[in-house]
Design a protein that fits this description.
The chain has 102 residues and is an alpha+beta fold. It has one domain. Helix content is 39%, strand content 14%. It contains five helices and four strands, in the order H-H-H-E-H-E-H-E-E. The strands form two sheets. The chain has a two-stranded antiparallel ribbon. A hairpin with a 5-residue loop joins strand 3 and strand 4. The model has no long low-confidence stretch (mean pLDDT 88).
Length: 102
Amino acid sequence: MAKEFSRSFYSSKAWQNCRNEYMKCAGYLCEDCLRRGIYKPGVEVHHVEELTPMNIHRPEVALNWDNLRLLCRECHKARHDNRKKDRRYEIDEAGRVHVWDD
């Protein structure tokens, strides 16, 4: 589910075109699975550098193919789960910082 700040970006023609062309170039296969020799359809175009309210309007982050990976649902979830494990804080949509206790 898209965060509030990113909803208009993900419905934009620029993103839809970028996403569709990237998927075609990646052969519609999950890039993480493919590295392991598994052929599985990719369904999510993932931003390696996470989109934030600060960088979402920067095409070199939001639309740059070097920052994208085509992933299956499982690999996409795993990447997001790993991000959360590495992070000790979270910034909510109102900009408030929440520190995680271990």
